[in-house]
Amino acid sequence: MASRALGGPALPLANGLSIPVLGLGTSHVGGYSHEAVVYALQKCGIRHIDTAKRYGCESLLQKAIKESGVKREDLWITTKLWHSDYGYENTKQACLESCRRLGVEYLDLYLVHWPDAQVPGKSSREVRAETWRAMEELYATGMCRSVGVSNFLINHLEQLKEDCEVTPHVNQVEYHPFQRPQELLDYCRSRNIVFEGYCPLAKGEALAHPKIIQLAKKYDRTPAQICIRWSIQNGVVTIPKSTKVERIQENCEVFDFTLAEDDVAILNGMHDGRHVSWDPTPIV
Ligand SMILES: NC(=O)c1ccc[n+]([C@@H]2O[C@H](COP(=O)([O-])OP(=O)(O)OC[C@H]3O[C@@H](n4cnc5c(N)ncnc54)[C@H](OP(=O)(O)O)[C@@H]3O)[C@@H](O)[C@H]2O)c1
């Protein structure tokens, strides 16, 4: 782990910023809890919040951040561009609107949410490139302190390399014991793209697995803590989501124990390729 910043260990980005390795997920799936976000910020030292236009809670987050009393400069805020806003002009407008809903003047990280563009008459590659040129501009103006992608596979990243200038700072991808895309992770590392994992608990599915329950017993931890710790030990930024304060607390208590190498290997061996969210493989 390179540094400690913004309330916990952080990983360095290619542009010199540091992203806190543990963030708080938010989402439209399973609801939004104002109490949980305020608790995470006030009581658990969480300084990294992951959201998206798609989740519909950017304005609600503005209220929670305000109530928490945590200063803007002490927070890492990631939000995402939804595909209905792809394209050069729309992207710039969508970023402004996300900032307005969040009540901020800049984003720490803005991600292109999904590689499929769904624009009639244009290939997704063409639209991704047009969109990325706007992201590059948002980065150059400082409105986005870093820019990245989400759910991009190696082929999408290779195309972007041919079509554009700035290498994404981050790729946010599904990552939990059943879904460990090692080739993509190695590729991202080779290009200095920070790998961020979403659905670290496999939306709860991983928590009932006998091997994970066994490891939880061994370390006197919970299955959720085992999964989150495993992501962190693999050098992956992780953003578990919960709407319950007691689980938020639990999910943050992952910096005072270490999984032995053999146990990391057990978890690494559980990959079966299943997705609990989206599978971007068919998208060209
Ligand atoms: N870029 C993308 O395309 C993308 C896609 C999906 C997700 N994400 C991001 O990743 C974040 C996390 O993903 P996710 O919410 O889908 O999955 P997740 O974090 O793997 O799992 C969340 C689920 O686990 C439960 N849970 C949380 N902590 C728990 C604990 N300690 N014990 C037992 N159950 C627990 C939650 O229920 P309760 O609320 O009832 O606690 C919820 O049902 C999202 O919030 C979002 O920010 C990004």
TrEMBL record:
The record marks K80 as: Lowers pKa of active site Tyr. The keyword Oxidoreductase applies. CDD domains: AKR_CeZK1290-like. The active site is at Y55. GO terms for molecular function: oxidoreductase activity. Substrate binds at H113. Belongs to the aldo/keto reductase family. This is NADP-dependent oxidoreductase domain-containing protein. It comes from Alligator mississippiensis (American alligator).
